[in-house]
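Trying the structure run again after the queue cleared.
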Amino acid sequence: MDQTMNEVIQQHLTENPPLTLEVAKEKLRALLSQSEENAWEIGDLLNRIENEGLARHEGFGKTKTWLEFALPETQGMTTVLYRYASVAAVYSKQQLQRWRVSKLEVLMAHDREMHGKVNREDPVDREVELLKPDGSTLVKKFHDCTYRDLQQSLRQRKSSPQARSANSKNSSKAGSGKAPSTQPSAVTQVEKHSLRTGLTMLGAGTVLLVVCEFLPRSLFSGWLVLGSLVLSVAGIGICFRHWKTFTEQLHSALKEGRALEFLKERMVQLSQGADKLATTVRGNLAKIRRPPHSHETNNDTKKAA
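Done. Tokens:
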């Protein structure tokens, strides 16, 4: 009997060899050829790499660092891949295939906002309490909820003072109970460059290049040209990475049938960013146009009196 048991163990080890970074790289490369269909497998593999500390043991520090080094073709896809990892850490392959990444991801966010933690149960017959724009609530089965229902309820909860207060209480209770994290740390380690930073760097580099045209040729102007070129290239790189990420996310949204919602979200974000920028510019212009002699005029009036 011991011999039979040893043979079974040996067969299991032969069919499922220990995971190494080299094995993980080849598996990921094969899975990425059809990333949408292999979303759960990709996410599960990234979670295993992170949880077993394979990248750290090889001196890469972060899984993301190894990913960009070993598989350069994944640059610009990091956000999408970590979405897969986030959902695969909570739900099964069958659940992901049935409900898709986007719907399960917004359900997880809805759970955190409402209860302070993610519910790992099969969501098919779960009752979800949706918050409507008028403040009323509607309870629906998850299988009857659309992605838009969950997204609108999540937005309403985030903007509602009562919901924020309730969420903070739930979060404190979850923290006192030391609930384990439901997401791999790799997901929280995604480095996000600001698109505004990229555009600012590109604009600053362009302006400096124009200024250099009017400066006499010298060592200082040469270094200034070099610095402006570095700024411009770095800005273009950040903008290109954002564009690539945007196209990946749009492609994923098209596959999941939520392209219109995705584009509306981006338009809202773009509008909010433009409003903030316009407000900042108007404030700076108002400071510049403010008459500097108002204080002196008041002093002169007091002296005359």
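Residues 113-181 form one domain. Worth checking whether this holds up in the mutant runs.
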